[in-house]
Amino acid sequence: MAAKKRKHQEVLTDVKRLLKEIEEKKFKPLYVLHGEEPYYVDLLTNAFAEKVLEPEQRDFNQTVVYGHDTEPSSVASAARQYPVMAPHLLIIAKEAQVWRKWDDLLPVLKNPVSTSVVVICLKEKTLDKRTAFYKEAVKSGEVFESVKISDRELIPAIEQMCKSRKIAIEPKAAAMIADHIGTNLIRLTAAAEKLALMCRDRGTVTDADVSKHIGISKDFNVFEFNRAVGMRDSAKALKIANYFASNQKEHNIIPTVSNMYGYFKKIAIYHESPEKGNDYALAGKMGIPPFFIGEYRDAARRYNLKQVVGALEILHETDLKAKGVGSTGSDGGALVKELTARILRL
Predict the structure, then answer these.
(1) What long-range pairs does 321-325 form, CB within 8 A, spacing at least 24?
(2) I need a surface site. Which of 169, 260, 309, 314 has the fewest CB within 10 A?
(3) How far, in Å, CA of 170 to CA of 164, rounded?
């Protein structure tokens, strides 16, 4: 049976715990920071670099090496040394995903030097969990896996980012950020920081704030495009399609199609769900906040299940054309206008 994938909230809980332990200088002999999401790996690595030693202690006691330039055995040897006029010796190995001889690090775990702290970082990769080193690291050290946030977790994560910065955010505003930025945690964090700074006096972020401060057009974004098509608002949908066609650098056809495919897939889930009377259960199944159920209910009234399937087929076909499969030579602008017209005619 496949291991259950970690949720963003679980990752965040571990990050908070580790940051607290680093601040309190409660260290284990070795840390493995790995996973597909680099944001939290970098965050924790920086915390080790800044908090284990005082600035004046780092010249002789803090070493940063890279996987391409060193081997696990060299790190193990370095970890057997003692600090010079400092409480700890810190060794950070970055981009260690290229290593093969992981078991050479076993002595760091089985016979640790109490003053050494070794931090191993893998860039957008996971360590093989079948190795003896991994199993010992789980038992005697700390293994932190940073998974990418899923689309389903995205809006709650944006809301949590704002909450932790002592501001609230309206659901539509959070959805606009999710559609514009996606799952890039570096950009999402930067957006939350900016909104917290600009909106702190009022306490709540609106869609107008997102348009103004994050640079997202309130009228011409994927969120409004999906809604216009979903509501069969032909005038607005075609207007946005034309705008996208004339601004292809900002509104690339491939993510636009992917986003609308997800939108119609949720409408299909709504049609097929037996839980239409329970907005919270239905929202959970669709992966959206309950606030948005009304919109999908309205869209489901305008597109029956057969028409939804037709829209998904059109979007799949357009995605292939945009990627050069069965292409008729049309550019992304022509494709987005064509798919809009075809879906509206269903």
Answers:
(1) 322/253, 322/254, 322/257, 323/254
(2) 309
(3) 15
Which one-letter amino acid corresponds to residue 161?
Answer: M
Structural domains of the chain, with CATH = 8-145 (3.40.50.300), 151-213 (1.10.8.60), 222-344 (1.20.272.10)
Question: How far is residue 237's CA from residue 335's CA, in Å, rounded to a whole number?
Answer: 14
Residue type for position 131: T
Q: Read off the pLDDT of residues 104-152 as tens digits, 9 standing for 90 and up.
A: 999 999 999 999 999 999 989 999 999 999 999 999 999 999 999 987 8
Render pLDDT for 39-63 as a digit per residue (tens, 0 to 9): 999 999 999 999 999 999 999 999 9
Distance CA 91, CA 118 (A): 5
Q: Taking Cα atoms as reference points, which of 185, 154, 129 lies closest to residue 262?
A: 154
pLDDT tens digits along 97-113: 999 999 999 999 999 99
Could you tell me the two tokens for 245? 């066609």
The long-range contacts involving 287-290, CB below 8 angstroms and separated by at least 24 positions, are 287/151, 287/152, 288/155, 289/155, 289/156, 289/171, 289/174
Compute the distance between CA of residue 280 and CA of residue 160 in angstroms, rounded to an integer.
Answer: 19
pLDDT beyond 50 at 1: no
Please name the helix (run of DSSP H) or strand (run of DSSP E) that holds residue 332, with its range, or none. helix 332-344
CA distance 312 to 325: 17
